[in-house]
Amino acid sequence: MDANTFLIQVLNGIQYGLLLFLVASGLTLILGIMGIINLAHGSFYMVGAYLAFSLSQHFGSLWLAMAGGVVLAVAIGLLLEWLLISRLYHRDHLYQVLLTYGLILIFEELRSVMFGDDVHGVAVPALLQASIPLTDTLSYPVYRLWMSAVCLALAVGMYLLIQKTRLGMMIRAGAANREMVQSLGINIDLLYRLVFALGVALAAFAGMIAAPVASVFPGMGNQVLIVCFVVVVIGGIGSVKGAMLAAILIGLVDSFGKVLTFEIAGVRFLPELSGMMIYVLMAVVLLARPEGLFGKRG
Amino acid sequence: MTEAVLRTERLTKHFGGLAAVNDVSLDFFTDQIHALIGPNGAGKTTLANLLSGDLAPTSGGIYLDGEDIAGLSAERISQRGVGRSYQKTNIFLPFTAFENCRLAAQSRLPSSMRFTRPAPRYEEVSREALRALAEVGLDHRAEVPAATLSHGEQRQLEIAMTLATRPRILLLDEPLAGMGSEESARMVELLQRLKRAHAMLLVEHDMDAVFALADRLTVMVNGCVLESGSPDAIRASAAVQEAYLGTEEAAA
Amino acid sequence: MRNVCVATIVLLGCLLALALLPLFAEKYYIQLFTKMMLMAIFAMSLDLLVGYTGLVSLGHAAFFGLAGYALAFAAPQYEAASLWLSLPLAMAGSALLALVIGVLVLRTSGIYFIMVTLAFAQMVFFVFHDTKIAGGADGIYVYAKPVAAIAGWEPFSLENYTHFYFVVLVLLVLVYASLRMLLASLFGRVIVGIRVNEQRMRSLGYRTFRYKLVCFVIAGALAGMAGYFAAAQFGFVSPDTLGWHQSGGVLMMVILGGMGTLNGAILGAFAMMLLELGFQGLPAVGGVNIGKHWQLFMGGFIVFAVLLLPHGLLGLGRLASRLRPKSAEAGDD
């Protein structure tokens, strides 16, 4: 593999990883703090993408679509939390799985009713349509770099929020010991609502900025959900740090898996089975550290 | 001098920077109740967890009949004859008292990978369970769901389950916790009876029971052994008075 | 005691009804009930994991679909496979996959377990979807049903839908009876103990990992049995057969029916399939084909059921019995 391909794969891998991080961080926070396993988390990613698609057609601008879309997504998230999710806090994970699975079905069908089952494209905003030349023959899209930059900025923002603010302190305390936080008199309902809204917003925003690159199609939510699960398992539940590390790792593995060739005894594992690579990675982590790289033991 | 059933050598457990159990060397003999007392947070339950395998030590040795068992899993240690009762009642609430003990007794079969014969048909196991229940005085409550037993009865069941595994050493963590005076008296009498055939570690806060039962006393403070000896020696010790017994009696 | 008698009578009544069905029903319904009974077997195998051992697997369809693919491999093109050879082979394949996955996923518990079972099932999905092993995303056909011939004598023919029905009915009864026996055995007691308090089981000396693994493998093998016959009946296997919609669907059946009872799994399977048909058959309203979007109603139903039926459909029965005075029950939930 030559240096150019290597560089491009690294950039692609990091970009995909950062995007994953955005979605997965919401999932891991909701899991770690609220103890809720939300299968519909991927659906919010899809909601974001479809909002980007329909609103950008409506407004004629992706920027306005994103702004409006985030607001809408958060509203939907808050409504869901208030109506349904809040009733799951004391229930077994089993029922959370079931209810959120029902939500997936609902979201999927609503999407089918409202937008049909075709694949849609979203145009890259004019501002970011250029490509940066890397060599005489290769150039890298500015939009992808912008995506990575935005994800990174949000990651830094999350870090600051969690490590440096009072709200962040409550979030960290909640992740470590939910009962204690409650007994300290902190309004746990409000905290949960905020965390959930944050998670939804992150997932939806990720879907929005990914739309021009990954296109908008049915099943995109489920696809990203499962990969996010792998991120959370590898990184450790509740750990944003772990989610970042795991997401980048997965992004790179996925990216390189697609371009490398690997063969044993005439059977080609790569690039054919590149989709499997991240699960192999997960299996390895499970064997070594079942609680994830930064998860709590026991 | 007979060999100790269980012996620890410089046993230590760190949680991060904190040494919950620090350089503890103790031994336990059959026909001897070795009580462990100390203020809350002294590391008593942590020590019990280390001995039963629920926690792995950071350093030091644990010798069961001379064999090092430090770091072995809880299930392995239990199979070697270490029985444990828990501070927070740790039974199978949906099952009857009998089923609780039956399940405990079943663990002593060479293998439970049997898929056809119904469990109640294993009569030796059922007999063992009833024997354990009778020993603690719960046989008349055998068919009662454990969840509806009184608190004292649940503590008794906790012990019965341990007895059903025919252990050689009993690690009892606050068996009298939350009991009224009549129940406590019965428990004390039970422990006296059990002493003959078992070695016993007794972690307790009830000082009356401790001094009535203990053949040997160890006082732990902040993870370390402050003093260890006969009950009279401990009672007379100035250091122990100051660190622990004094405040206990003032509070009592 | 009274409730056990009622339950037994209801069960026997249902069995009788199922046995007599082919006398009265036409082909469509016979085939429909065959499918429902297969789903019931699938659901029971998952109930063993979820309801009795406390292992919530979101990837159970992997074992279901793999057996279907095994049949397709054993019956390429228009060749028919031998039932007596290919069925054990298919089940063994599913059992082996369950062993491999089980060794990895049983190191985790709780939420992690749910996620990794889903992830590994997805991995299996990818193997069949992205490679040319078996037709990729298009799936492959099983044109000829397995042949039950032994040395020339054919006790029944699976090409005959009534024979197929009875074979599956017999299997349903056998699986049910076997699982009841299993749960009453030493092994079954350990499994239930693990669900109630695994830590205590370990401190009592049980090597719980082994028991969970064996349980996982048994559940996988039984799912394989269901998947094999489902593929034989439907005549087609695709990656979706082992996809997570299938896994989610069977989990729904178990939970909505009432988990940890085996009866609930059967009830759930029948109820869910009838619901699905009901929703699919909804008439068009205002030019919109509502039936096409049946999953919307299914999703809505699930949400309501979770909120209103904490013990699933069987819980309704329990609620009714609670209104009548009765002696205290000492059973597990």
List keywords for this structure.
heterotrimer; B: Rossmann fold; 6-stranded mixed beta sheet; 5-stranded antiparallel beta sheet; C: 333 residues; mainly alpha; ABC transporter involved in vitamin B12 uptake, BtuC; two-stranded antiparallel ribbon; 12 helices; 2 strands
Calculate the terminal CA-CA distance of chain C, rounded to whole Å. Answer: 15 Å
Helical run tally of chain C: 12
Number of helices of chain B: 9
Rg of chain B (C-alpha, Å): 18 Å
Could you tell me the CATH topology label of the largest domain in chain B: Rossmann fold
Q: Which strand-content bin applies to the residues of chain C?
A: under 5%
> What shape does the CA trace of chain B take?
globular
State the fourth-level CATH superfamily of the largest domain in chain B.
P-loop containing nucleotide triphosphate hydrolases
CATH architecture of chain C: Orthogonal Bundle
Give a structural overview.
The complex is a heterotrimer of chains A (298), B (252) and C (333). Chain A has a domain at 14-217. In chain A, 71% of the residues lie in helices and 4% in strands. Chain A has helices at 3-34, 41-59, 62-83, 93-115, 142-164, 166-176, 178-183, 188-214, 220-235, 240-259, 277-288, and strands at residues 131-133, 139-141, 262-264, 267-270. A two-stranded antiparallel ribbon of chain A has the order 1-2. The mean pLDDT of chain A is 83. Chain B contains nine helices and eleven strands. Chain B folds into two domains: 1-81 and 168-182 and 191-252, Rossmann fold; 91-166, no CATH class. The longest helix of chain B is centred in the last third of the chain and has 15 residues, at 181-195. The mean pLDDT of chain B is 89. With 252 residues, chain B is α/β, with parallel strands linked by helices. A six-stranded mixed β-sheet of chain B has the order 7-8-9-4-10-11, sandwiched between helices. Chain C is mainly α and 333 residues long. Chain C has one domain: ABC transporter involved in vitamin B12 uptake, BtuC (Orthogonal Bundle), CATH 1.10.3470. Chain C contains twelve helices and two strands, in the order αααααβαααβαααα. Chain C has helices at 2-24, 27-53, 61-74, 83-105, 110-130, 161-184, 186-203, 208-234, 244-257, 263-280, 294-308, 312-323, and strands at 140-141, 236-237. In chain C, helix 1 runs antiparallel to helix 6 (161-184), helix 2 packs across helix 9 (244-257) and helix 6 (161-184) crosses helix 7 (186-203). Chain C is globular. Classes of the chains: A mainly alpha (298), B alpha/beta (252), C mainly alpha (333). Chains in contact: A-C, B-C. The interface between A and C is large, with 43 and 43 residues.
